[in-house]
Amino acid sequence: MNVANLCQDDDYECDLDQISAIKAQLEDQVEVYNKRLDEIDQIFNELNVENNRENEVRDVDYIRTSIRSVARLLSIDS
């Protein structure tokens, strides 16, 4: 994103190629974050199913692993 920072500077004019590159980077990031969000939603849905079990023992190891997966997805730098 150095190009984006450079383009913010009032003393610098970005050319069309640089603006297109910034746009492509942002679109890629949106795609990555949407995939992560879908994965997190799926994990939360599975955890809700696990949480709503009645008269059954909850799989604590599964819940722990799921929560770690969410933490991993939230901490990944792109």
Could you characterize the architecture of this molecule?
It is built from 3 helices and no strands. Helices cover 76% and strands 0% of the residues. The longest helix has 36 residues, at 16-51. It has one domain (2-75). It has helices at 2-8, 16-51, 60-75. By secondary structure, the chain is mainly alpha-helical.
Summarize the structure.
With 78 residues, the chain is mainly alpha-helical. Helices cover 76% and strands 0% of the residues. The chain has one domain.
- Domain count: the total is 1
Strand content: under 5%
The run of helices and strands is HHH
Number of helices: 3
- Give the strand tally: 0
**Low-pLDDT runs:** none
Major sheet attributes: none
Judging from the principal axes of the Cα atoms, what is the shape? rod-shaped
What is the residue-mean pLDDT, rounded to a whole number? 84
Report the helical percentage.
Answer: over 70%
Distance between the termini: 11 Å
Report the structural category.
mainly alpha
* Rg calculated over all Cα atoms: 20 Å
Secondary structure layout plus pairing:
Layout: H1 2-8, H2 16-51, H3 60-75
Task: Provide key terms for this protein.
78 residues; mainly alpha; rod-shaped
